[in-house]
Design a protein that fits this description.
Number of strands: 16
Shape: elongated
Oligomer: single chain
Number of helices: 15
Length: 439
C-alpha cells in the first residue's frame, strides 16, 4: 500500500534556496536602508490575543469577520495568527513601556496570515516589512515616512506611483460618514453585495471597492478632503508642500481610505499595474488614536507595510533578482580513507572564508556528477594517491584554469587561480572551550 505523501497547507508556500537567495538579498538591503533612518528591529509574536485585532482593526472589517486564523487554546483563550503587524507593534510598545517620553522607530519583518482565496501574489501565509514610528504628530514625519517608503521601492528596483489622501480627525470623519450615507442609501440597490453589507457599518469602505459599478458610484460621492477639520486641512497642505520639496511626485486619490479602522489624517499607497490590474505595492498612514484605544497614553503614530512576495514579483519583472551564488570549490573524497583528510582541508578553507562543498566517498565518475551539480567554480578529488604524496589537481569547471600541487599547498593553488581570500569572519575563528576527552 502506497504511503500518502503529506501536502502543505493551501496558500502557504515552501521557499527553496534558489528563491530564498533573492529574499535574503532584499531583506539585507532593506535592513541596511532602515538603519539609515534610525529604525530598529522589533521581533513580534506570531500569535496575539484575538481581542487585540478586534479592537485595533475593527470588528466589522473583512479581516476580523472573514480572514483571521483564530482558535481557542488549552486555557480557553482565543488566539489569532497575526493578520497584520501594526496592532501587535503598538501592543508591544505599550507593554514594553517604550512610549514614555520617547519616540521609538521600529520595523518588523516576517510572516502574516489571512484566510482568503489564494491567487498570484496573494497567499494565506505572506510576508511583510512593517515600519512604525510613535510619538510624532507633525506632517514632517509623515513626509519622512513616505520618503522612506519611496526609498524602499527604489532599493528593490521597483517603480510605482504614489497616491495620498487625508481622512481627517475622527470627529470630521463622523460628520462626513453621515453625508456619505445620505449619498449612498438611494443607490444601495446598485452596489455590490459586499458594499450593501458594509455600507451601514463602515461606509467609507465603499469608496475603495474594486467592483466597477461601485467605483462609478464612489467617483461621484462627496469628497472627504472637502470636509476636513481645520487642523487636518493644514496638516495635509503641509504634507503636500514637503513632498514637493522632496521631489516625490504624488496624486491625491479622493477614494483612498484604507481598510482598517485605526487610520486618521494621512493615508497613502504606492500602486502599479505591472502585475496586471492596478494593485497596491506598499501602503500606510497615520493612526494617532490606536495606542490610547489599546489602553496606552495618547500617542500619535505613523507607519506602513509592504508585502515581500509582491515586491519580489515586481523586482523580477522590473529589475531582476539576486541569483544563487555557487560555492567556490567542490572537494570530493574517492575512498573512505580520504574522507578525514578531505574534510580537514575543507574546514581549513572555510576558516579562510571560502565556500566549499564536499562529496563522497564514492568513485570518480559519481564525484564528477556531484561536482557538476554543485555548480562550484573549481573541483578537486582526493584519493589514496594524494594521501601518499601525489599532486592534487584543481580544475576550473567552466573554464580552462588548472593547478597541481601538494594537498598542503591548496591555499597557494587557489591564490594562483585568482581566488581572493576574504577577511576572517566570526564563524571562521576556532574558539572551542575544550577538546574532546575520553572518560
Amino acid at each position: 500500500m502506497a504511503v500518502k505523501i503529506p501536502q502543505g497547507v493551501r496558500g502557504m508556500n515552501d521557499i527553496f534556496p534558489e528563491e530564498s537567495v533573492a529574499w535574503q538579498a532584499l531583506e539585507g538591503d532593506l535592513r541596511a536602508l532602515l538603519a539609515l533612518y534610525g529604525y530598529g528591529e522589533v521581533r513580534l509574536p506570531l500569535l496575539e490575543s484575538t481581542d487585540l485585532f478586534a479592537r485595533a482593526i475593527g470588528d466589522v472589517t473583512d479581516i476580523v469577520q472573514k480572514e483571521m486564523y483564530t482558535f481557542v487554546d488549552r486555557n480557553g483563550d482565543s488566539l489569532t495568527l497575526r493578520p497584520e503587524g501594526t496592532a501587535g507593534c503598538a501592543r508591544a510598545a505599550i507593554q514594553g513601556r517604550r512610549l514614555r517620553g520617547q519616540t521609538p522607530r521600529f520595523y518588523y519583518l516576517g510572516p502574516m496570515f489571512r484566510h482568503e482565496r489564494p491567487q498570484k501574489g496573494r497567499y494565506r501565509q505572506f510576508h511583510q516589512l512593517g515600519v512604525e514610528v510613535f510619538g510624532l504628530s507633525a506632517a514632517s514625519i509623515d513626509a519622512e515616512v513616505i520618503a522612506l517608503s519611496a526609498r524602499v521601492l527604489r532599493t528593490a528596483g521597483v517603480t510605482a506611483s504614489l497616491q495620498i489622501n487625508s481622512l481627517g480627525s475622527p470627529a470630521a470623519r463622523l460628520r462626513y460618514r453621515a453625508l456619505l450615507l445620505d449619498y449612498l442609501r438611494p443607490r444601495r440597490a446598485e452596489l455590490c453585495v459586499d458594499c450593501r453589507e458594509r455600507m451601514e457599518h463602515n461606509p467609507l469602505r465603499v469608496l475603495d471597492c474594486k467592483v466597477a459599478v461601485c467605483q462609478n458610484i464612489a467617483h461621484a460621492a462627496p469628497r472627504l478632503v472637502d470636509h476636513l477639520d481645520e487642523d487636518s486641512f493644514l496638516h495635509f497642505n503641509s504634507l503636500q508642500g514637503l513632498l514637493t520639496a522632496l521631489e516625490i511626485p504624488y496624486q491625491i486619490n479622493h477614494r483612498l481610505v484604507r481598510g482598517l479602522d485605526y487610520y486618521n489624517r494621512t493615508v497613502f499607497e504606492w500602486v502599479t499595474d505591472a502585475l496586471g490590474a492596478q494593485g497596491t505595492v506598499l501602503a500606510g498612514g497615520r493612526y494617532d488614536g490606536l495606542v490610547a484605544q489599546l489602553g496606552g497614553a495618547d500617542t500619535p503614530a505613523m507607519g506602513f507595510a509592504v508585502g515581500l512576495e509582491r515586491l519580489l514579483a515586481l523586482q523580477r519583472l522590473q529589475s531582476g533578482v539576486a541569483d544563487v551564488v555557487p560555492p567556490l570549490l567542490f572537494l570530493g573524497a574517492l575512498e573512505d580513507a580520504a574522507v578525514a583528510r578531505t574534510w580537514q582541508i575543507a574546514e581549513r578553507l572555510r576558516d579562510a572564508g571560502l565556500s566549499v562543498v564536499t562529496g563522497g566517498p564514492t568513485h570518480f565518475k559519481q564525484l564528477m556528477k556531484q561536482a557538476e551539480r554543485s555548480r562550484a567554480r573549481f573541483q578537486g578529488m582526493v584519493g589514496g594517491e594524494q594521501l601518499a604524496g601525489a599532486a592534487l589537481r584543481l580544475k576550473e569547471q567552466a573554464g580552462n584554469g588548472q593547478w597541481q600541487g601538494s594537498l598542503n599547498a591548496i591555499h597557494e593553488g587557489l591564490h594562483s587561480l585568482g581566488v581572493d581570500f576574504p577577511e576572517r569572519a566570526p564563524h571562521t575563528v576556532r574558539n572551542f572551550a575544550t577538546a574532546r576527552t575520553s572518560l
